Every structure is written in structure tokens, then in C-alpha cells.
Queue: 3 jobs
Job 1
Amino acid sequence: MDVLYLLLILCILAILFAGYQIFVHRALVTEEVRITVRSSDGQSLPCDMVVLSDLHNRQFGKNNERLLRAIDDCRPSAVLIPGDLVTKTDRRNAAAEQLLMQLYAREIPVYYALGNHEQSMRSKHSEQWASFLSEIDDERLHLLDNASAVTKDGVGIIGWTLPDGCYGRRGRRITPDESSIRKVVAETADQAYRILLVHTPYYFSMYQSLGADLVVSGHLHGGIVRLPLIGGVISPQMELFPKYDAGVFCEGDTTMVVSRGLGSHTMPIRIGNRPQLITIRFVQEGQE
């Protein structure tokens, strides 16, 4: 009888946990981050942007209507995607494709850097990657694969595609060669404000040395499980208490914003960690 009670309790706990996971994966939250900009003579503030990271082909409502409504409410000048809009193992990327099409229809420029899933798809599933590219091609999409672009209000945006080895599991990572991106960064030297889109936040000190004013990253899914006063517990690479789990970090004159992301893949678990759409609002120094 005791065994039956134990099994019953375990079944109830499993059902409750599954229900919680269904709820939390759908519980999209929009959070605002304010970035202070030091102005020089004649320099205007960058316009507000949203960060859409680690979607992994997830949908919020039919045709992603809830996510699109949240983006509309932010009224962004641009959408920043620091990678993993897709999942490398998915045969179809319909949700990601459709979301981009909806953003195009709204005439919102999209700046999209590659994450490890895009890179893996490109190297291991080349036909799938080519099909994805053909579907999302549009003049409003800036696919920044070690490339740069300049927004209408003069913000330089650089997308750095890190080598696959930079995403190694359990600390087995290579350090990226920054010389591969310095030439691209130099293309934006005339811009008063520069944003670096790079998927993983691991190498913040290196990003800071490149001279970016703002770094936008994701990849760690907020640490998957988040605890009060502690933060993220484990990264997708199975490392405990990742340093740059989520939030805002500062080093020198560089700020880094790390998104908790919107979706999940191999480990589809979120605890205390709602899917996050970030609005970046730029404010004048002294007017915070």
C-alpha cells in the first residue's frame, strides 16, 4: 500500500510539474532595460529596440500573435536577434520564417546574428539552411554573419559569428580569435554608438576590448532554473551557476544585455524563468 501511495504522489507531482512547464513556457513577459548614452555635440539618442533571442521556433499564440503584439506595444525602431531563432534539429522552420515575414510586413528592420544552432544547421544540414535563407530573404533583414550594418539613426551594428568550438560543453571551449572581427568592427568606426550582436556572453572582456558600446547576447536561457538571490543555476552546456546568466552587466564603458530567451530545445525546462522579450530604451546621461 505504501508503494501505491508513493506512486500516486509521484504521478501527481509529475502532472503538476508538466502543467507548470506548459504554463511557464507560454508566460511571455516583456521587460525594459534602460541604457545610458553619453552624448557628444550633435549626437542624437539611438531609438528604442527589442531583443528577440533564442526563439528556437517557438510560437506564442496562433501565428505568434502574442509575441507580435508584445513587439508592437514596444514600438521599436529595430529588432535585434543575437542568434538561435531556429533549432538545428527541426526539419521545418515555419515559426521563425513566419515571424520574420510578419516583422517585414510591419516594416521593422531586423538585425540578425548567427547562433550555434544556425551555424550547426549551415554546416550539417546545408539544404535545410539554404531553404531557410531563401524563405527569409528581404531587404529589411540584415543577416550579420561577421558583417556590419548602420541603422537609419546612425547606430552601427556588428554581428560576430563565433566558431563552433566556443560553445563547448562543461567548460571545454576554445577562445575566439578577435582578429577575425576587428576589421568588421572598424567598418563602424564613424558611428557614435555601436552595438555588438554575439550569441554567447562568455567572452565579455574580449567584447569590451573591441570598443562596442553595447553587447547583446543570449544563449544561456537564463540559466534554465532561476532561484531568488542566486540567479541562473545551470547553462545549456551543463555548467553550474553561469556568470552571465541573464540581465545587465558592465565592464569599463561597455554594457552587455543578456536575454533569458524565448524558447528551449534539448532540455525543455524553465523554472522561475519566464520567456523574455527585452525592450532597450536609450536615455541621456544625467536623465536616468
Note: Residues 29-284 form a domain with the Purple Acid Phosphatase; chain A, domain 2 fold (CATH 3.60.21.10).
Job 2
Amino acid sequence: MDIIAVVQEMVVGGFKSIFGIAIIVFPLMVVLEIIKDLKLFDKVSFLTKPISRLFNISDEAGMPILTGLIFGITYGAGAIIQSAREGAMNERDLYVVNTFLVLCHGIFEDTILFAAVGANIYIILIFRVFTAVAITFLISRFVKENQAVAKTTFSDFKG
């Protein structure tokens, strides 16, 4: 076995994978920044109402979920922190939203990236969404409205 051929194949294959991912990620990031700058999320807030009702959270908590689903965990965390600072969500809402986004963040971006490396996107998409909805739904039913949830974690965001 020729070690140089193996190393060459690893390097070429690695660069091909990186290039395939970059072709997807760079345009996606540009589109997401345009959507963010045009404030299109504000115009589609009606889409989050069914999510809010399903998890029994405030309507304001739906936007961080939508942001996290589309933009990923970093933007979703930014939206969660901003909502917490503004007082738009209570501690229970924060807990439920974080639970959902931990399980199902960047659903579009990640799915496209997995497709670029040959994964079956339908299996990944269905499994991630179903699992996140089921677990978050169960948790949302057990956490009471007046129950302090992870107070030391969320109280830091409020100011």
C-alpha cells in the first residue's frame, strides 16, 4: 500500500467535502443575512402560533424557536437572550424553548449539510423534528407555569 497515495486521497477527498459544504453554506448565510436585515421574521410571526399553542408557551417564545430552527443555535440563542432581557418570556418559556432548540436547531442548514455528504435527508429531518416535538411536548406538560426552572441559569440573562 502506497502511503503517499493514501495521504493524497485523504487531502483531495477532504477538500472536495469542504468545497461541497462551502457551496451550500456561503449562499445560505447570505440569504439568511438578507432575511434578517429585511426583518422578514416579523412578517411571518403567525407561523409560530401553532408551536406556541402546542408547547403551551407565550406567543413571544415562538420567534426564538423559528429563529433557532432556521439560523441555527447561535442565532437562536441570541434571540432567546434578547427575549429574556426584554422580559418577553418567563422562565418556563425559556426552558421549553431551550429544550426544543437543543434537540432541533438549524434544521434546514444541518439537513442540507448532511445531504452534501450523502445522508438521507428525509430520515434525518423526520427523526429530528419528531423527537424534538415529542420530548418538548412532554416536558412542557410537566413544567408548571409558576415553577422556577433552572433559575440560576436564566436569571443571568435578565439584566
Note: DSSP finds nine helices and no strands in the chain.
Job 3
Amino acid sequence: MKALKNILFLALIVMIVMPVMAQKVKDKDFKTKLKLAKKEAKSYEDEGWYVAPGDLPLEKQLENTYVKQLEEDDYGYPKYIVSSGNSVAGTQSAAKLQATELAKLEIANQLSSQIAATIDNQVANNQINSEEAATLQKTVAASKSIIATRMGRVIGMVEMYRKNEKTKNIECAVRIGYSVEMAKQMALAVMKEQLQDEANIASDKLEKLLDF
């Protein structure tokens, strides 16, 4: 009975202490990120970058970005995929549009890389055969641009500009975020569409594949 009480007591200590320790780590990470945001903003401003009128100051934008990057789901995985894009155009709006599209494509590339790695892992574990793997890898490559196009609304995190006084062109740099869960659902839907004529790929295998 005494031993049982000791075990229960130790379990209670772990339940109390571990979350506190985890929170301290997160608080420390957050404070470090805030310092980094201030330093990073100063560096960008020294290089001639500025924000559009009415937007948050660059330091605050960077702070918010780091906050999003630190957010986790119930299993401790990041809630958002974060990417960046950079483009130069004759107008501010055109530069922003191009930079955002490049950032979306980068998210699609990140997704594709994770899916490709999962396919290789499932082949190694004999969960899918080489023929299925080849079909899936081909589909992943073909789905990148479709995923980027269907991404729709993303979370704008950083948006800054710099003007080239010689050419009068505007350079835009953005950072965007997209929900990991939404990205997985969209990738699953796109790949299912692309694989509708491939009878040898079962739907349950595809869903398991995207559970990365």
C-alpha cells in the first residue's frame, strides 16, 4: 500500500512539474524570439526595407511570425507551415502578388518533400510496393503547382518593401503561414483527384501516406 502511494505521489509530481518545465522552455524560446525580432527588424531597416502605410511595424510583424512558428497542436507538432517569397516588379501590388505566389509554391514544395520522404519510408517498411511508390512519387511531382494554386487564403505574417532608386522597381519580401492540417487535407484531395485512374492505389493507403 505504501509503495502504491509512493508511485501515485511520483506520478502526481511528474504531472505537475513537466507542464511547468515545458512552459518555462516555451517562455524562454519566446523571449529569445522577441530579441531576435528586434535585431532582425533593425537589420532590415538598415538595408532600406520599409512597411506599407497602415501596416504593423516590422518588428511587430516579425514578433507575430515567431509566435505562430512556436504554436503547436495537441501532439507537439507545429500548427503552421511557414515560408517566404521575394519578388521585384514595377509596382508594389505586382511585387506583393508575385512574392506571395512564390511563398505558396514553397509551401507546396515543403509538403511534397515530406510526402516523398514518407513514401520512401513506407517502401522500406514494405507497406507499399515499388510500383505503387513510383506512381505516388510521379503524382506528388505533378501535384505541386495544383496545391499551390488551391491554397487560397494564407496567413500574412511579414510584408515589407524596398525601392531601387535607379530602376524605380519595387522589391517585396513576404512570409506567410498555412495550417498544417488544412495543407494535409488539401494535398490528400488533390492527390486523390490525380490518382482517380490508378486502381492499384487504395484510398486508405493514400490517407495513411499523408499522415506525416
Note: Residues 87 and 99 are 5 Å apart (CA to CA).
